[in-house]
Design goal:
Layout lengths: L2 H49 L1
């Protein structure tokens, strides 16, 4: 393997790594969004119960 192909190989690995990290972050963001929505829904429901 010469230096040039090693560089492109390394660039491909970097790209794959950042894509993987990005998709993990996106996954976490979705989970947080769902959790926040659930908490807000639960909060609204408890407020309704207090009103009645």
């Amino acid at each position: 393997m010469n230096a040039e192909s090693f560089k492109s190989f390394q660039a491909a690995l970097d790209q794959a790594g950042s894509n993987a990290a990005f998709s993990v972050c996106r996954q976490d963001y979705k989970v947080l969004q769902v959790a926040a929505t659930t908490i807000m829904a639960g909060h609204d429901a408890s407020n309704d119960m207090v009103a009645f």
